Write a sequence for this structure.
C-alpha cells in the first residue's frame, strides 16, 4: 500500500488526536469531550457534507473510534459516558469500521451510463432495474442516483456495454473483495474476509472508514493511572519519527514521555527467525512448504480463505508476541504497548494476552506533540541495541527470507511476495501443488511493514534507514 | 551561489503534519529551480506549530502547507 499524500482529512484526524491527548493531559477529557467537535469544526473548516452540523455529527463518531469504541454498537452512548469508562482494555471489538453517517451515500456514483448508450428499443437496462432507477431522457438512459441500489443488473443487461461500473476507492483498494455496499449505498465490511490490513482506511477520500484505537487509553495509563508501561518499537520504526531522528533519541524521548521500558521488537524477531528456521528444516525434509506467520494480515487471509493450507502456516509466535511475552516474564506489572505502522497488529493484539495495547507511529507522534516533546530539539539519546540484523531486517519485504537464508544452509528454494492480491494468487498455486519452493514469505503491505498504512515516510527512504540501522549493530 | 533560502521545519508537530512530504517534494523539484535554492532545516519556526507544517522562504513564514502549496510559493517568490 503506497503512502497517500497527507490530505485535509488526515490532518484533521491527527489534530483530533492532539486535542484529545491535551484533554487527557489536563484531566478534562470527560468534562470537555462533548465540546470538541464544535471547537474543531467551524463554518470555515473544509467541508464534504451539507453543513457543519452534519460534519460535527460525523466527527463525534470519529472520536468514539479514536477512544477505541465501535461506532455502531455505541450509537446511543454519549461521549462523556464512553470517556468515563476508560481505560478498559476491551478485547472484543472490530478494528476497521465504517462511519455510517460519513459514508452515507458516497458521492462517488457506482454505475454510470456512458455515451456508448444507443437508445436501443429494447431498453434492457430499464427492464433489468429492480427499483425503476433508469429513465430515458432525449434518447439516452440516465440513472437516478437517489434510487439506484447499485445491484449492477443494468450493466449486465446492456447489449452495448454502455453502463460502466465505477469502483469506489474503498472497494478498489480492498484486494480481498471484503467491501460491498448495502441497499443504502453504504460500504459494508464482510468480516469473514476482512484481514484488517487498513487499505480501505487509507483509500477513502472522505475518511469514512476508520480504525478503533488504543491511543487515548495509553495516554490515560501513562498520565492518570500512572501505570508502568513498556514501549515495543516495531522493526520498521527507524526514520518514522522525523528527519534525522536517531533510534537513540527516540528511546530517550519515549522515556521522557513516561515509558519505563523501551524495547526493539526486532529482538523478538530474532527469536522468531530462529524458531522458524527449525520449522523450515522439517518442512524441507518433508518436501512441504512453510508459510511465514509474522504478518497477521497474511496469516488471517490464509485462515479465512485457504483452510486446507492452514497447516502450512508457521506455528512460531510473531516478533510482537515474543517480545511482549519476554517483557511480561521479566516484570508482569508492566503493560506492553506495541508501536508500529500496522492496523492488522491491532487485531492480532486482541487475541494475545501479553500485548495490552497497540498504537501507530502517527498516534505516537501525536502523543509527543501533545506533550510538547519536539524530537528535533532533543540533544540527548539513550542507546538502543537490543537486536541485530537478523531481526531488524524484518521491517522490509524480503528481510525475513534473507534472515532464514542465513540460518538455514540446506539446499532449498524460497519465495517472497508482498501485497495481498499477489499473495492470494500464489496461494492458489500452492493449493494446486504448483509451487517449487519450501518457504513463502508473505507480507500484506507492498514493501513490507515499511509500506504499512501508518508509515510516516516513503518506503524507499525507510528501507535505507532500516538497513543502515541493521548494519550498525 | 543560490540566492534563495528555504527552511523546512522538521520539528515533531510539523513532521506529523507532513514535513517529510515537503522534503521529498524538494528533491523532485526541477533542477534549474533547485540550484537556486539553499535548503535548510529548522527545529521549530517561530512557534507556529499549530499551523504545521511550516516553512520559511526568503525570510517569510508560510503555514499549513502541502507539496502543491509549497511549489506555488517557490515559483511565485523565487529570485
Ligand atoms: S515544530 Fe514546526 S513550527 Fe514548531
Amino acid at each position: 500500500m503506497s503512502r497517500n499524500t497527507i490530505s485535509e482529512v488526515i490532518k484533521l484526524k491527527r489534530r483530533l488526536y492532539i486535542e484529545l491527548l491535551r484533554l487527557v493531559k489536563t484531566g478534562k477529557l470527560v468534562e470537555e469531550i462533548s465540546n470538541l467537535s464544535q471547537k474543531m469544526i467551524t463554518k470555515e473548516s473544509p467541508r464534504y457534507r451539507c453543513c457543519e452540523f452534519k460534519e460535527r455529527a460525523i466527527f463525534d463518531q470519529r472520536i468514539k473510534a479514536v477512544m477505541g469504541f465501535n461506532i455502531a454498537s455505541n450509537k446511543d452512548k454519549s461521549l462523556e459516558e464512553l470517556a468515563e469508562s476508560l481505560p478498559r482494555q476491551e478485547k472484543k471489538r472490530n478494528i476497521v469500521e465504517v462511519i455510517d453517517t460519513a459514508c452515507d451515500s458516497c458521492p462517488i456514483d457506482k454505475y454510470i451510463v456512458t455515451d456508448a448508450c444507443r437508445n436501443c428499443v429494447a431498453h434492457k437496462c430499464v427492464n433489468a432495474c429492480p427499483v425503476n432507477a433508469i429513465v430515458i431522457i432525449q434518447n439516452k438512459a440516465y440513472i437516478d442516483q437517489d434510487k439506484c441500489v447499485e445491484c449492477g443488473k443494468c450493466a449486465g443487461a446492456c447489449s452495448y456495454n454502455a453502463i460502466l461500473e465505477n469502483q469506489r476507492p474503498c472497494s478498489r483498494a480492498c484486494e480481498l473483495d471484503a467491501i460491498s455496499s448495502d441497499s443504502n449505498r453504504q460500504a459494508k465490511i464482510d468480516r469473514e474476509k476482512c484481514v484488517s490490513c487498513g487499505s480501505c482506511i487509507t483509500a477513502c477520500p472522505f475518511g469514512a472508514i476508520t480504525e478503533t484505537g488504543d491511543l487515548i487509553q495509553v495516554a490515560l495509563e501513562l498520565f492518570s493511572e500512572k501505570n508502568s508501561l513498556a514501549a515495543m518499537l516495531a522493526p520498521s520504526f527507524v526514520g518514522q519519527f522525523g528527519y534525522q531522528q536517531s533510534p537513540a533519541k527516540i528511546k530517550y524521548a519515549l522515556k521522557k514521555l513516561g515509558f519505563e521500558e523501551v524495547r526493539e521488537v526486532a529482538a523478538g524477531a530474532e527469536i522468531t527467525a530462529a524458531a522458524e528456521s527449525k520449522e523450515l528444516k522439517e518442512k524441507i525434509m518433508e518436501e512441504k512448504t512453510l508459510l511465514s506467520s509474522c504478518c497477521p494480515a497474511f496469516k488471517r487471509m490464509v485462515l479465512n480463505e485457504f483452510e486446507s493450507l492452514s497447516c502450512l502456516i508457521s506455528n512460531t509466535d510473531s516478533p510482537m508476541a515474543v517480545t511482549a511475552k519476554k517483557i511480561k516474564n521479566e516484570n508482569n506489572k508492566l503493560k506492553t504497548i506495541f508501536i508500529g505502522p500496522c492496523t492488522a497488529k491491532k487485531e492480532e493484539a486482541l487475541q494475545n494476552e501479553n500485548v495490552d495495547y497497540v498504537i501507530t507511529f502517527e498516534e505516537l507522534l501525536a502523543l509527543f506533540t501533545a506533550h510538547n516533546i519536539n524530537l528535533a530539539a532533543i540533544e540527548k539519546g539513550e542507546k538502543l541495541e537490543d537486536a541485530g540484523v537478523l531481526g531488524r531486517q524484518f521491517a522490509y519485504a524480503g528481510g525475513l527470507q534473507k534472515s532464514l537464508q542465513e540460518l538455514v544452509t540446506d539446499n532449498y528454494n524460497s519465495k517472497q511476495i508482498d501485497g495481498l492480491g499477489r499473495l492470494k494468487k500464489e496461494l492458489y498455486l500452492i493449493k494446486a501443488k504448483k509451487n517449487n519452493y519450501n518457504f513463502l514469505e508473505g507480507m500484506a503491505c507492498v514493501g513490507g511493514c515499511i509500506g504499512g498504512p501508518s508509515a510516516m515516510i516513503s518506503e524507499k527512504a525507510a528501507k535505507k534507514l532500516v538497513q543502515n540501522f541493521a548494519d550498525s549493530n | 551561489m543560490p540566492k534563495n533560502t528555504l527552511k523546512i521545519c522538521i520539528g515533531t508537530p510539523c513532521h506529523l503534519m507532513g514535513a517529510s512530504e515537503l522534503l521529498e517534494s524538494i528533491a523532485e523539484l526541477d533542477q534549474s529551480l533547485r540550484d537556486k535554492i539553499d535548503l535548510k532545516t529548522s527545529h521549530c519556526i517561530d512557534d507556529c506549530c499549530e499551523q504545521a507544517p511550516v516553512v520559511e522562504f526568503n525570510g517569510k513564514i508560510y503555514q499549513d502547507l502541502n507539496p502543491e502549496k509549497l511549489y506555488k510559493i517557490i515559483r511565485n517568490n523565487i529570485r
Notes: The interface with chain A takes residues 10-13, 15-21, 23-24, 41, 43-44, 49, 66-67 of chain B (CB under 8 Å). The radius of gyration of chain B is 11 Å. The beta strands of chain B are 4-9, 37-42, 55-57, 60-62. Chain B has a mean pLDDT of 92.
